[in-house]
Amino acid sequence: MIVNVSQSVTFNNIDGWELTSVEDETGLGVVSDINSPSFNYQAQTPGVATLNYKVNGGDLESMSAIIVVINGPPSPDNTPPVAKNIALTTTNDTSVSVNLADQVSDTDGDALVISSLISASGRFSLNGDTVTFTPNGFVGVDQASYIVEDGKGGFASAYVVVNSEDSNPLSPNSPPEAQDYSYVLDVNVLPTWTFDLIDLNLISDADGDQLTIENIYSTDGRAVKVGATGISYTPGSFRGLDQFTYTVVDGNGGTAIGSINVAVNDSTPDNTIPTAGAISITMSDTELSKTISVSGSVSDVDGDPLEIVDLIASIGGVNVNPDNPLEIIYEPNGFVGEDKFVYVISDGQGGLAMATVTVTVVPSNPNPPVANIVQIETTPDLAKTVDLSAYISDNETPTSELLITNVTSATSPAVVMLNGQSITYTPNGYIGVDTLIYTVSDGELTDTGDIVIISSPDADHDLNANDVSVTTDAGVTVEIDLSSQISTSDTTAEPLILVSAVGASLGDVVIDDANKKLIYTPKVGDYGKDVFVYNIKDSHDPAHFAQGLVTVDVLPPPPPEITSLTVSGVPTIGGVLNSNVVCTTCITSRYKYNWSINGLTVSESSNYAYQSTNPDFNIRLEVVGEDIYGQTTAEYSVYRVSITQKIFSTSLTRNREENNPRTPVDAIGSFVAVKNDGSAVVWGRGDSGDASSVSAELADGVETVYSTEGAHAALKSDGSLVIWGYDGTESSRLGDYGGSAPNDLPMGDEIDEIVTNNNAFAILTKDGSVVTWGGTSLNGEDVSSGIKEIYPKFGAFAARRVTSSGLSAVTWGVDSLGGDSSGVDFSKGVESVFSNPTDFAAIMGDCSVEVWGSNRRTEASCITDVAATFGAFAAIKSNGSVIAWGDSNAGGDSSAESSQLTGNVVSLSSTIGAFAALKENGSVVAWGRGELAGIQDVGGTAPPELSSVTVDALYSNYFAFVAVTDRGDLVSWGQGSFGGTAPTISNVKNIFSNKVAFAALTENGQLVAWGNTRYGGSAPSNINDGGGIRAVSATNFAFAVIKNNGSVDSWGDPDYSEVPSLAQPYIAIVETSIAP
User: Which SUPFAM superfamilies has this protein been placed in (predicted)?
Assistant: First the structure.
């Protein structure tokens, strides 16, 4: 393997560094090819290798170590164990420990041993299964690696990463925050996942400091840094559960650690990835544990048995029930509140799914006791004892078990004594209003209440203060007129005076003594029943006092209402989806968001950077809104994702009647994008590019599309065909290309295959009959039974037919183009059929070849494969040699190259007038000339540089060849302006072509096009902005691609290179909780 250390080396104030040495101190492998910043390591013996490496730069030197876990070859008898990364935070004066036994597992149930701990700093120590980090004043991030063994040759390693913060920083700084994240990746859709921590709302800084990734701890280097806050994750051949840890710094000494958990899937036709749903439960803190079943929330369409294979990031304790693989045992361990964690299920066939479990642990004693206001009236020499049990209560605790824990002191000279649930107030001559506060407790929670005492000179007075009750709306001030509520019969005692208002908790009270009013204003955000005491006195000296009770019923406002909850944005991978919430009384800063896909929470922010590689999973957004009074409301909306999965195009049929390839006349190409929701989107030229007449039928259920050069036939899931395009009517000025089908077409379960040529469709049914329509006539041929296979070509069809004497052929279409096969001896049976624009060539049962159409020929040699130009054929014989026949100007004469074509030829390619043969040793032989509309060079002469390379594959268009070498480089030849001059690129994976241009796709998904710049040879400048190319399609003169982020692009013929918006990814609402 190649090891690159660049992600592990950081440097400042030097120009650069160089890897100077690597040594394997364990001798378990061989180090070679040290070429900074990488080297090659060949593992030879199972075990744990320590590779010590040294880097130099700016007259400085540094050393570190690389740990390589070497497992033996895969064995059905033993699966290596699994070890998880651990992230811890402490301060520079506090040690921290963790039990590694809780972080390792083994599917075989083998007894695991933590065999070693590797710490470059020496701050980590291992005692049994427990690792301890002792900072000794260290501030920063430190890490160690631990090794676990299963005793059967299986090893695993993981990191322990510790953020040691300064317990007494010199300058104030809020450290950044980093969140964990869980993601399900389908490598068949997205080979490399590139994302930004900021876009996913995973990192933040309260001070607004600019954050950067300091390091990534990833097994086998599958995750690497991209820019300041980006990460690129490439699983390569890895499938299963993966984890990597990242650290971010704020530039001011602050650090945070987060972990990313990835379930790496590879969807295949043989196995569908299972699904998992979110689960929410509530339990009491008095329960020691709770068993959570996921069986009702998981499913697998293949019927595979499912099991929980991992539980990620919980506060409480979580374990899989050993007696039931679909049950989780949750233990709160003293935690009270909301706990969220992720469960991972496996179908045992490589399919994984994740979903979120929310556990709300509610306290058994959620409500505090209640302490009501207490009124006492006395005289200066009269002590009063009050039993407070009449004023206290609790929902969970009997009154007799409540405790009065405190009473504030009385105003001197008065004193107060507490005795159990009673108090005794002794005035000791005090005259006036005294207010005390008492505290009641249920043993955990407390409340306080007011004790309002009036002490008058004597009890012989006629001063009255009535109790009053009023009602007001929340937030609305109310005036309480007491003029009629206070009185005295002693005229010498007037005027009466409002002294105080005591005990209001939900509002503020202002005394207007002049008007004998209390002005009560509810506090912002409060409502309910408020009770307080008002006190009055008369004008005697000393004064007498009286008190009354005021009850204010503050009515709650209407609860908040979310009247609209929508999502906007484009669901390309990395595209930002935004929540749009309408709630007139909600506080924006208090919104709580939960975005989930297939049960897994993917964001808790107002937006979500879309990442899902399975567009068939809906996006669910739930928002909880809250008003200033703490009233809440919750609504949700569910959106489906519409994304193009396949692009079909009008067929590329070699047509010799096109006499000017430089300027395509009446080019009629079009594309059909079939989306994951079964809808089809059409764009392009003419009738084939206009599906408005069948748009309703293309709205759903489309599975695949068959095309001629000017028409399409969409096969739907119900077996029906939807057909449109040029149909030969007067309005269809270019003729009949099959745009109108006959009545009573076969349905899907009756269809064996559908084939097309340039202007007609042919359906082979399972009973061996053929139904055909379009511009290629049957000419009276009987194709009602016995047909085994159909072969199309320009202007004609040929079919293999089963007869009583064996396999023969039947043909129809233009006679001179192969539609007339009379005179051809099919008695030897037909094995396969090939064609060029003018002729058919059939390989017979005895390996000989029969040719008919514009030319008639019998070739007795035993043939295994045939290729064609516009006027000639070339064939590979059973001994690997090549013969050619037909128009010598179009490659029909290979005599000049015959000495190079005597054997070992493995494949043939062709342009309109030349052939190229690829041989076993990677050499290429080319011949032919092909003169068409003044174009002389169509690839008949191989370039000299081919002699110095080894070719792995050959491709061609009408006018040029391109060879891909074993190094992934390109060599091209032929008409330069039509693709004969390839760009300098490497690591080419595949080549696509239309008639006049090529598009190369590299191993990392990047695309490069060349050839005719107007008709596909010049790709848009942003063609590689979507994280790579997933699929490529071509018409005669244009290309279309699906990018890895789900977006669609096309280029070439300017009349249909603009992609309609409906072909691009979009979201559409399917469900909402908001009533219409």
Answer: RCC1/BLIP-II
